[in-house]
Amino acid sequence: MLMPKPNQDVLAKRDYLVTELRRIVADSEAVIDDKDDLRAFECDGLSAYRQLPMIAVLPETVEEISEILTFCAAEGVNVVPRGAGTSLSGGALPLADGVLLGLGKFNKILEIDYENRCMVVQPGVTNLAITDAVKADGFYYAPDPSSQIACTIGGNIAENSGGVHCLKYGLTTNNVLGIEMVTMAGEVIRLGGKHLDAEGYDLLGVITGSEGLLGVITEVTVKILATPEHVSAQLIGFPSSEQAGDCVGKIIGAGIIPAGMEMMDRYAIHAAEEFCQAGYPLDVEALLIVELDGPKVEIEHYSKKIDEIAAACGATVSRTSQNEAERMAFWAGRKAAFPAVGRISPDYMCMDGTIPRSQLPKVLKRMGELSEQYGLRVANVFHAGDGNLHPLILFDANIPGELERCEEFGADILKLCVEVGGVLTGEHGVGIEKRDLMGEMFSEEDLKQQQRLKCAFDPDGRLNPGKVFPILHRCAELGKMHVHNGELPFPDIPRF
User: Fold this and answer.
1) Mean pLDDT of the chain
2) pLDDT class of 43 with cuts at 50, 70, 90
3) What DSSP character marks residue 470?
4) Full-prediction pTM beyond 0.85?
5) How confident is the model over 243-254, as a mean pLDDT?
C-alpha cells in the first residue's frame, strides 16, 4: 500500500511549522511533535499499515481549524483529518510530511431539539453518546456501527457508516440533516440544517462518505427517532451459510423489512458465545439475528411469517426473545463478534463489500472455496439484510507471507462483490485498503470525473492525499484549473 513520497522541502521546515502551529492554537501542548507522543496516531483500525505523522495538532475551536488549514494551504502542507481512529480502511493513516488534524476536543452536544426531532453535536461526539443523551426521553439515533461506543459522528459521516439497523432506517447519509465544514482554504460553510430538504445541489450528500478529502467537519445536525413501541429479536440457525443467505433474500422478497438482519457463521458464533455467553446455538453452521420493531400485533404477524420462510429454507433452530434482557443478549454476541474473533487468531483483516441480497448464497460458497485456496480461515459477520459483507480473514502477521496472502484473498473477495453486481465498500470507505481496486469498479473517466469534484473543493489536493484514488491527477491535468485575468494560479506547478 504505497503512499505519496514525502516532500523533502516540507520536512525541512518542520521546526518552523511547529512554531507557527503553536502560535495558532491557544494550547501550545496541543501541537505534538515528539516522536514517542506521535505513536498514538501512527495508524487507525487498519493497523497492518503504520506511519508516523510529521506533526499532530488538536484544535479546540472552529477558528483554530480555519487558521490551521489556511496556514497549511499557504505552506503547501498536506492535512489528514482524524476522529477516533476507528477507520478500518486506513482512511486516517497519517502522512510522513503531513499535519494530522485531530478532532477529539470537539466532543460537545450543542443542542437537543425534540420539536424538530434533531440534535446538533460536534464531530467528536461518539455515536453511542448521541443515543445516550436522549434515550431517557424515548428517542435514539438509528445508525449503530459495531464500534459505536468509540467511533465518532464526524468519522461516521466521512465513511457513511451503517450498522445493524441501517436496513430499515438507512445509513448515516439518511440520518444527517446538516453540517458545518471548513474547506482547505479556511472558509467555513454550512450545508443543510434542521429542515428536511435543502435547495440546490445535494452537497450534503457529496460530503457524506467523502472520507476527509473535501473538508473538515466541525458541526453536525442529526435526526433522532422515537423509540419503537415494541422490539423483538429472533435467532434462526441453519445447517449451512448458503441456506441462511437464501432465507435473507426470501424474507425481503416477502415484503418484510426487519429493523435489522445480521448473519454469523460457525467461527463467529463459537467465538462470540465463548466471549460473552449470548445463548447462541453451537450446532449450526450459520445464524441469523432478525429484529422487528413497531406495534406488537405487527411484530407477531411478521415473526410467524419469518418462521415459515426459515423453515422452508432448512432452519433447524428458531428462538424469539422473551424479554428485553434476552434481546440485548442476542445482540451482545453480534456487537462483540469482532473482538471475540480476535481471541481465535493472532491477526485478522475485516473486509467490507456489498452485494445484491440474491447473490448471498453464491458469494458465501465462493468465499469458502477461496478460503481453501489461500489456506486462510474466514469468519463471516455481516449486515445480511442489505448485503453488506464483513468477512474477517484470519492470519498471523508473524508468519512470512501471510499478510500478503491475506491481502490477495481480500482483493479477490472484493472483486467477487463487483463481479456479482455489488460494490467495493458498504460503510468502511475506500481509504488505502481498496484504493488500488477502484479500477475494478470504475473506468478511468469515472475516476477522473470524481477527482474533478475534489478539485472544486481542494484544488491543490492537500486534504488526505493518497486515499481513495489509485492514480492521482493534478487539477490542471483534469482541465479544471481556474484562470483569472489571464493568469494561472500556482505557476510553479508543471503543466500537462
Assistant:
1) 93
2) very high
3) S
4) yes
5) 95
Q: Where are the domains of the chain?
A: 8-102, 109-226, 229-433, 436-496
Element (H, E) at 331: helix 324-335
Coil/strand/helix, residue 102: strand
Mean pLDDT value of segment 460-467: 96
Cell 406495534 found at: 295
Collapsing DSSP to helix, strand or coil, 10 comes out as: helix
Pick the CATH number of 8-102 from 3.30.43.10, 3.50.50.60, 3.90.1300.10, 3.40.50.720: 3.30.43.10
For residues 344 and 379, give the distance between their C-alpha atoms in angstroms, rounded to a whole number.
10
Domain at 229-433: CATH code: 3.40.462.10
The tens digit of pLDDT for each residue in 190-208 reads 999 998 877 789 999 999 9
Cell (9 digits) for 420: 456479482
Question: Rounded to 5 degrees, what angle do the CA atoms 351, 353, 358 make?
Answer: 130
Tally the C-alpha atoms within 13 A of residue 375's C-alpha that lie toward its C-beta: 7
Query: Scanning the structure block, which residue is given the C-alpha cell 473538515?
Result: 216
Helix or strand run (H / E) with residue 290: strand 286-294
